[in-house]
Amino acid sequence: MPTRPRRVQIPVGPQHPALKEPECFLLTLEGEIIRESGVRLGYNHRGIEKAAESRTYIQDIYLMERVCGICSHAHATCFIQAVEEIAGLEVPKRAQYLRTLIAELERIHSHFLWLGVAGHEVGFDTLLMYTWRDREVVMDLLAALTGNRVNYSMNTLGGVRRDITADQKRDILEAVDKLEERTEYYVGIARDETTLIQRLSGVGKLSKEDAVRLGAVGPTGRASGVPRDARRDDPYAAYADVEFDVVTSDHCDVYGRTVVRLLELKQSYRIIRQVLERMPEGPIAVKAPRKVPAGEAVSRYEAPRGEDVHYVRANGTDKPERVKVRAPTLANVQAVGHMLKDGHLADMPIVIAAIDPCFSCTDRMVSLAGSDRPPGVLTWDALRRHGIAWYRERGIDFADLSSRLARPEER
Amino acid sequence: MTREQCIEQDLTGTFPFLEGAVRIQRPRRMFVDVPREHFGAVFEYLARESGFTILCAITGLDQGGMLAALYHLAQETGIVLTVTVAVPKEAPVLPTVTGYFPAADAYEREMVDLLGMDVVGLPPGPRYPLPDDWPAGEYPLRKDWRSPEEAPLPEAEKELPDAD
């Protein structure tokens, strides 16, 4: 008599099965098939929203930049747009164009990064090596333009902090040509490479109806045929002045998400060329007041992973009353649960990676180590001292070791 | 008449008590304050009849005596309408909107954890975003909450030998 396979629950996490970030999935399996899934987030909650309330607007720009290590320009710009709206600042056109330029360079580096991760998750490590090598082109460019590879610190209230020179403009165009050539190559792989197509097709299905119902954003939504893109629907910076297509796909699976990101890269090159061609001369910032009048604003920004939403409320002082950050991963988490359902356990890493999750953005806070700390929980410092004493009792002395490892001049 | 003004007229026509409560801040940005007792009806009308099919986020706010929830709703047209509803801090009860937007789950749990909002009808699930051993009754996003950073060390730790 056939019996229904026994259901087994396994926790996956808090160490991420695909990326180096913590969250925990509780999967209910029937054999190799995932029947139900639940997710526990919050391991990376750092209290950034609370911290923002006790810092000035200028300090908060740098804080917001650190919400995410990839979409740093996205969060800083999204925040600053809200503040500028409340303060009634008219940001110069040139600054809007420069923000758009950095935004698209950031999208390129993020999509290349994702492509590498996706390759790695399906055992196609050559793709990882190739794409991450190519990604260095745009990273170098960002470093040359802003001084940093990731936290660019490009924004300031009322504009941007750095202009670009004619030489830099030429460098950008050269790099874009080179990257476009490489992208064409990857598009060819995605179109012709049977192994890759078969590995990704039908994996992590999300129908258009479900994508809309569950509120999927960014490439995740667009790969299920949802043509939403804040750059076109709710234009900010210089996006109203440039032409580009919102790339969608009706594959509704991981393959579709790959295709959408690849073709979005080509749109980014198109935007960058237009931005450089049409960038008006003029100032790059206006003077901003230290105190911002009372008011509120909602800002949207199409980050590489999907829509960022910031809400800022000002109370007339130099510090915000409230800053709310909604990162795209939080909007896509419901969709992930749905994608995993009835799929294979072995597909889990690539399905999760395919939304290009960022749990640091999503979480934003730290745990309370206070008077209610349960007995047996140590502070970091106490743990360190305890560890050193524990080893010393067993005859291992790190003080000795570190003196032996020290360079001669330190001895 | 702009699209925003059309929405305002439609809202105040359907719900006369919203007269004067709608604010158009700039193209594509609108705000409306909704009395608590009418929140359910207004929200249903917006989500089901007015094309506000996207929930961008929900912001929780400590306003002193009141807690407020701000629902940032968007249309495909790019118009974002922020619906603000305030509830007294002693009984901060709000209905869940997960029936309209399943993704509201995370935003509502955030208000529960960080502000102590009582969201009625949330489906069972893990808390978010605070850790499981977070002390009850501590709501970090409330304005009067302070982080006990300088808390005294438990006795057991003081006895550990200094290592240098």
In short:
Helix content of chain A is 49%, strand content 12%. Chain A is of the alpha+beta class and 411 residues long. Chain A starts with 6 loop residues before the first strand and ends in a 6-residue tail after the last helix.
Keywords summarizing the entry:
heterodimer; A: 411 residues; alpha+beta; Cytochrome-c3 Hydrogenase, chain B; 2 domains; 3-stranded antiparallel sheet; 16 helices; globular; B: 164 residues; alpha/beta; Beta Polymerase, domain 2; 5-stranded mixed sheet; two-stranded parallel sheet; 7 strands; elongated
Kindly describe this structure.
- The complex is a heterodimer of chains A (411) and B (164).
- Chain A has 411 residues and is α+β, with helices and mostly antiparallel strands.
- Chain A has two domains: 48-332, Cytochrome-c3 Hydrogenase, chain B (Orthogonal Bundle), CATH 1.10.645; 380-410, no CATH class.
- Chain A contains 16 helices and eight strands.
- Chain B is an alpha/beta fold.
- Chain B has a single domain, classed as NADH:ubiquinone oxidoreductase Nqo5 subunit (Beta Polymerase, domain 2).
- Chain B has helices at 3-14, 39-48, 104-115, 155-158, and strands at 22-26, 29-33, 54-62, 66-74, 80-88, 93-95, 118-120.
- Chain B has a five-stranded mixed β-sheet, covered by helices on one side. Chain B has a two-stranded parallel sheet with strand order 6-7.
- In chain B, α3 (104-115) links the parallel β6 (93-95) and β7 (118-120).
- Chains A and B meet through β3, α8, β6, β7 and β8 of A and β3, β4 and α3 of B.
